Amino acid sequence: MNAPAFLDVGDRRIAYRFRAGASPTLVFLPGYASDMEGAKALALASFAERRKLAMLRFDYSGTGSSHGRLADGTLDRWLDEALAAIDRLTKGPLILIGSSMGGWIALHLAQFRPARMKALVGIAAAPDFTSWGFTAKQAAQLDENSRVSRNFWESGQRFLLLNKPIVVDCPVRLIHGEDDKEVPVDVAFRTMKALRSSDVQLNVLKGGGHRLSEPHEIDAILRTVAALLEPHP
Q1: Is 210 a catalytic residue?
Q2: How far apart are CA 123 and CA 29, in angstroms?
Q3: Which position among 100, 108, 128, 149 bears the catalytic label?
Q4: DSSP 3-state assignment of 184?
């Protein structure tokens, strides 16, 4: 595989892979501590290649091939990087595909760039996981060796979405595992209800966990994206 390209965002250098092609551009947003070379990202890249679609995938600073330390990562920092990537590397309508924390970032991107949103797909989307994922005692004990850093937890608390209407009007498709132990399926139902869009569908995959990387689960993701590409009757 060829080496990734790099984009400077402030004092950070983030790795990305961009495939030129037809519109809309698919944008894959990884989860916390994940990267653009995972099974779902690679399956979507192959899908884009077969369909001759443009696609962008990248690593947040401190993850994957990007520079920096994961412990320095914050939601606002990574959201800033995602905005810079779509603004500087893509044109025209977008289909955002966010996995876990990437779904949280995707929902914010859709509010910042509403005119560019063709659709949004959340794969085990985890909005507000700093709020519902930790007790006050656990949050007070966060450090660099924790599942997430304290910096990230504090930034996440400033970007909560589920306590108010989510002002996103494009079609949204949520795909969630029935047995997801990290992001309870109730979060998907709460997200669906909070979204302002009237075109929201939730697909709960029987027996599915959080990763949703089994062949039949990836197939469900690709079929969802394919359906969003079809013209409305």
Answers
A1: yes
A2: 10
A3: 100
A4: coil
Q: Distance between alpha carbon 34 and the CA centroid of its chain, in Å?
A: 11
Burial class (CB in 10 A: 0-12, 13-18, 19+), 163: exposed
3-state secondary structure of 116: helix
Domains along the chain with CATH numbers:
5-229 (3.40.50.1820)
DSSP class of residue 166 equals: B
**Which residues are within 8 A (CB) of 70 and not within 5 positions of it... i.e. 6 or more apart?**
33, 62, 63, 149
Q: How confident is the model at residue 1 (pLDDT cuts 50, 70, 90)?
A: confident
Helices (H) and strands (E) in the chain, counts: 8, 8
Token pair for residue 146? 């924790």
- Confirm whether 100 is a catalytic residue: yes
**How do residues 152-187 score in pLDDT, each as one tens digit?**
888 999 999 999 999 999 999 999 999 999 999 999
What is the rounded distance in angstroms from the CA atom of residue 123 to the CA atom of residue 43? 14
Residue 50 tokens read as 């077969």
> Which amino acid is present at 2?
N
Specify the pTM: 0.94
Local structure of residue 114 (DSSP, 8 states): G
Does residue 11 have an active-site annotation? no
